[in-house]
Amino acid sequence: MDASFTPEQDEIRRTLRELLRQRLGPGEPRTAVDTPAGYDPALWTALAEQLGLPGLALPEAYGGVGCSVTELALACEEAGRALCPSPLLGTAVLAAPLIAALGTEAQRAELLPRLASGALTATLAVPGTALATALALTGTNGGDWAGGGRAGGVQARRVQGGWRLYGQADQVLDGHSAGLLVAAAHTGGFARSRTLLFLVPGDAAGVVRVRQTALDATRSQARLQLREAEAQLLGEESGRDVLAALAAVGAGAAAVLACEAVGAADRALEQTVEYVKQREQFGRAIGSFQAVKHRLADVYVGVQAARSAAYYAAWAVPHGERVGGLALAQALEALRTASAEGIQLHGGIGFTWEHQAHLYFKRAAGDELLFGPVHRLRAHAADTARLFETSERREVAV
């Protein structure tokens, strides 16, 4: 494994950081989240047209750039540094890979070029609050999370000429503004129970979208109610395994999210270091106190360790090694620590609404609510690796 970045990868990072520096100042994220879309459409257009960000990991045949998950993860690291509100996660990390993996050739040809250009945004909608389970991050996604429609999930039933969906999905990223919903639904009844994915236009009849107040305002979320909404099956009914495809997308999403969290943690630490060099107490900059140095040194070690794990996870995705959950756990822990120490060491101003420090802490807490607490991410990784099984139990399982 060559740990160094290619010139193209370095250029992606440099160009995106410069663009975000010019277009996304300290107060811009909060201004953007107050818009109806929850992000700045002009900035999204710039990210799509100047950098091709939505199609970075999509094949060139469908209008993408043809890069791997690694390049997308590096781009998201820069977006995480700036806490950039955008539909990138839902569109490029969750929805587009599912369409590319499961969609028919006609569906891919129709949707992927529009997603790659940024003209169409999309997101993944799963019943209830089961996003982390559906992506196999905190447990085995056996399909039970899809529910049974009125019982709290989303139910799909076949009608003449198509499908109808009924049920509710919560915590849907950018669900109030996405042009396309990739909705997971339960079908087949008790005897032939299974989970399928469906394509639902965001403005389709029977779709009720309500934007929710999220802990992390830079990640817009919505509650979706599907009231006999018309839907198109994604791919063929007897095609690839939907649950396996969701797990594969989850592995890539975890690596991308880990890099994004590392970017946010690095920026939180950077801001804190800048501040302790300026703030004085007893006639000295507080950054000169040994106790402060030790605390920041611990944060630095945690961020660097998380960065190494995140980079490896991003590299491992196209090689078939799924270590994203562990990397995400380490990155979220590093971000939580870096942002919490940042608030403490900023003193009184760190607790104010006007300062940015609390936004990074909310990103850490919000991501744990969406994609799984750190301890559950690690527990599932340990269960998958059968880390705590005795040799006797392993022989029985085999």
From TrEMBL:
InterPro entries: Acyl-CoA_Oxase/DH_mid-dom_sf (IPR046373), AcylCo_DH-like_C (IPR036250), AcylCo_DH/oxidase_C (IPR009075), AcylCoA_DH/ox_N (IPR013786), AcylCoA_DH/ox_N_sf (IPR037069), AcylCoA_DH/oxidase_NM_dom_sf (IPR009100). It comes from Streptomyces viridochromogenes Tue57. Its cofactor is FAD. It comes from the Bacteria. Belongs to the acyl-CoA dehydrogenase family. This is Putative Acyl-CoA dehydrogenase. Gene3D superfamilies: Acyl-CoA dehydrogenase/oxidase, N-terminal domain (1.10.540.10), Butyryl-CoA Dehydrogenase, subunit A, domain 2 (2.40.110.10), Butyryl-CoA Dehydrogenase, subunit A, domain 3 (1.20.140.10). The keyword Oxidoreductase applies. One of its GO terms (molecular function) is flavin adenine dinucleotide binding. SUPFAM superfamilies: Acyl-CoA dehydrogenase C-terminal domain-like, Acyl-CoA dehydrogenase NM domain-like. Keywords: FAD, Flavoprotein, Oxidoreductase. Residues 255-378 form the Acyl-CoA dehydrogenase/oxidase C-terminal domain. Residues 6-118 form the Acyl-CoA dehydrogenase/oxidase N-terminal domain.
